[in-house]
What does this fold into?
Amino acid sequence: MKWKEYSILTEGICVEAVSGIFHKMGSGGVVIEDPQAARRYENLEKFNPDSVSPDFMEHDFVVVKAYFPEDKKIQDELEQFLKKVEDNFKVKCKIFIGEVRDEDWEESWKKYYHTFKVGHRLVIKPSWEEYSAQDSEVVIDIDPGMAFGTGIHASTRFCLKFVDEYIKGGETIVDAGCGSGILSIAAAKLGARHILAMDIDEVAVRIAKENVHLNGLDGIIEVAAGDIIEELAGREIDHMLANITAEVVNHLIPEAAKVLPPGGYMFCSGIVDSRWPGVQKQLTDYGFAIDKVLTDVDWVGVAARKL
It folds into this structure.
């Protein structure tokens, strides 16, 4: 199968807005190439210069990428949305369109994506690698395919760390915008009783189901496509995972406040630091206490407890 790769060259100030546009149009996640952020990591031991193109580090612009099936026509609608972004932020947005085949995507992941550990217990292992768990380690087999959620990006790592720290066993959880299913799988392997994992992207739903089956968790994790806000009505849950964007998180907070019990947690990520004050205010206004905040370059993750 072929995919259209839509790349938007712009400035960092509107990354959240462009990411939100792609989300609204049905993309399960975006790739953000930010050379300014990469330059901050350049001298760190964990930085791998082979993971970016040679000229990438010299750029000042940011690239936001999203992938859509070849037969899905979005260019006209995308251009209309981007015109509003340009007017609101006083920036320029350039669109570049390429093609990606499933096999090219898969080979790219196999080249750069390797087993790594997050938090105290979680080990994220690509399905094509071998790994023997040590002591209390919990191994998650994952094949990201075309879905967002590998554990590499800061936003996913934040939520994985929250899952590692806060999930004690027996919980009922909703994973809003589940992407590859990585967060749901982590929660289930740490003892959660039942998880509803939802995404608006049909590709993400398919891949999440495959990953759930790969980890033998079909009886614990229910994966579905649809609007999570509609599905929340009347549910009884213990915690919510929301690794999406600040805009969507803000829409979810009022609904989460209705269904979460006192002491229940909302774990939010995918928040650009410039949008964090607004998310923080929304959480506070709807009766949440900020328990923990994680930051990495321009990204913020939060564990918020319902009072």
Observations:
- The chain has two domains: 2-107, 113-306.
- Residues 75-89 form the longest helix (15 residues).
- DSSP finds ten helices and 14 strands in the chain.
